[in-house]
Design goal:
The protein is of the alpha/beta class and 225 residues long. The protein has seven helices and five strands, in the order ββαββαβααααα.
Length: 225
């Protein structure tokens, strides 16, 4: 790993010539291009520091050639092989900076990327059945081993995979709770602003997608439970 923080999912050198950055993505957004831009800038910064090269030297620094990939494992249909900063954000106009990212949705039949994508889909299926639980992970691992999907890895690292997935489940739940809490806070502020401008409680509730009772509690019109 070249960068040890949340900005980089996977960055590595091949023969000290090729820099590869990979982002695993389960929900689709073209904002991944901007994230890749941030990743590559941080990775190059770390690389130059590790290789003790100075940007103030008279000779050009050695820069590994970058290749950017997003491995998409979600359910939405993505029909683009490449996405770019120019096309998605600037209408195709040439600018001082562009980033081009290759989109991988399945890999070649049976290769490691294909097996990873299959594993994520099996996990998602089991989560629908059992929720974000240890049982869902254990069942997914059992199914994948039976189907010879990442079998060798799962047999040697099963406990580690279970622990990692449970940790990811917990992190996702905390993130969802945070987002829900932030949305409620913003909705309450909007409700207060609407009410101060003589908008009825019924209209506020309909506009914000909350019940009349909830809006009344936020506005202090009924005793808090």
């Amino acid at each position: 790993m070249l960068v040890h923080d949340i900005y980089n999912d996977l960055g590595f050198l091949v023969g000290d010539r090729l820099l590869v950055l990979v982002e695993a993505q389960s929900s689709w957004t073209v904002n991944i291009i901007v994230r890749c831009l941030m990743y590559i800038a941080r990775t190059y910064q770390d690389y130059l520091k590790r290789s003790t090269q100075s940007l103030f030297a008279a000779t050009p620094v050695h820069m590994p050639k970058p290749e950017l990939y997003v491995v998409y494992t979600g359910e939405s249909v993505v029909d683009k092989e490449f996405i770019s900063l120019s096309e998605e954000f600037f209408g195709g106009a040439q600018t001082a900076l562009d980033v081009r990212v290759k989109v991988i949705t399945d890999g070649q039949d049976g290769d490691i990327i294909n097996q990873y994508v299959v594993f994520t889909k099996v996990i998602n299926d089991q989560v629908r059945l059992y929720g974000r639980t240890r049982q869902a992970v254990v069942e997914a691992i059992r199914i994948c081993k039976n189907q010879n999907v990442l079998k060798e890895y799962l047999e040697s690292r099963e406990k580690e995979v279970v622990d990692i997935m449970i940790t990811l489940f917990d992190q996702n739940e905390m993130l969802e709770d945070y987002i829900a809490s932030d949305r409620r806070e913003q909705a309450q502020k909007s409700a207060e602003n609407f009410y101060a401008n003589n908008v009825s409680v019924e209209v506020i509730a309909k506009s914000l997608g909350y019940s009349v009772q909830t809006i009344e509690k936020w506005l202090g019109l009924v005793p808090q439970a």
